[in-house]
């Protein structure tokens, strides 16, 4: 689907998905992000410890479910000849959403009523994260999607 500097993104279907869908909306849409970790630091004891911490945090994040957040369904860290690959499988339902950044660039702005709705949804999601002891770094508008 896409390739960035540090990761690739693929669309995916469950391997046990055999039911014939009534429509394309009935097909579960998943996204698999694969991060290539090739920095030499991650071959050291401290680097491996940091990767174990990432695995532990992903295990915790897999338990979280909120309708305004992308769900992490599964993750796996594997050794490669050049370093590590981290695979993260997410609910891909937000893949067709428009980021707030894109919406502003296309429309030139967002009406006040819609802005209030987006802020309410964003604050509900952030509150849910905080109530589950998740600390986020930043929330750039390019990573913030709106849900219709």
Features:
alpha+beta; 3 helices; 148 residues; Phosphorylase Kinase, domain 1
Number of self-contained structural domains: 2
Radius of gyration: 18 Å
Under CATH, the homologous superfamily of the largest domain reads: Phosphorylase Kinase, domain 1
Classify the beta-strand content into a percent band.
Answer: 15-25%
Would you give the CATH topology of the largest domain?
Answer: Phosphorylase Kinase, domain 1
Element string (H = helix, E = strand)? EEEHEEHH
| Total DSSP helices | 3
Number of strands: 5
Order of strands in the sheet with most strands:
1-2-3-5-4
Structural class: alpha+beta
Categorize the overall geometry.
globular
Task: Tell me briefly what this model is.
By secondary structure, this protein is of the alpha+beta class.
Q: What is the element layout, followed by pairings?
A:
Blueprint: E1 2-3, E2 7-12, E3 30-37, H1 45-61, E4 72-80, E5 83-91, H2 100-107, H3 112-131
Write structural notes for this entry:
The chain is an alpha+beta fold and 148 residues long. It has helices at residues 45-61, 100-107, 112-131; strands at residues 2-3, 7-12, 30-37, 72-80, 83-91. It folds into two domains: 2-96, 2-Layer Sandwich (Phosphorylase Kinase, domain 1); 97-148, no CATH class. Helices cover 30% and strands 23% of the residues. The radius of gyration is 18 Å and the shape is globular. The mean pLDDT is 81.
């Amino acid at each position: 689907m896409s390739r960035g500097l540090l990761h690739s993104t693929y669309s995916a279907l469950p391997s046990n998905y055999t039911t014939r869908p009534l429509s394309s909306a009935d097909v579960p849409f998943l996204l698999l992000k694969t991060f290539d970790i090739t920095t030499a630091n991650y071959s050291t004891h401290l680097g491996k410890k940091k990767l174990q911490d990432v695995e532990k945090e992903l295990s915790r994040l897999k338990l979280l479910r909120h309708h305004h957040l992308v769900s992490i369904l599964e993750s796996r860290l594997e050794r490669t000849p050049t370093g590590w690959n981290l695979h993260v499988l997410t609910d891909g339902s937000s893949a067709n959403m428009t980021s707030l950044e894109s919406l502003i660039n296309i429309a030139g702005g967002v009406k006040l009523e819609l802005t209030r709705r987006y802020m309410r949804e964003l604050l509900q999601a952030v509150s849910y994260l905080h109530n589950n002891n998740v600390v986020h770094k930043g929330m750039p508008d390019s990573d913030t999607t709106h849900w219709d």
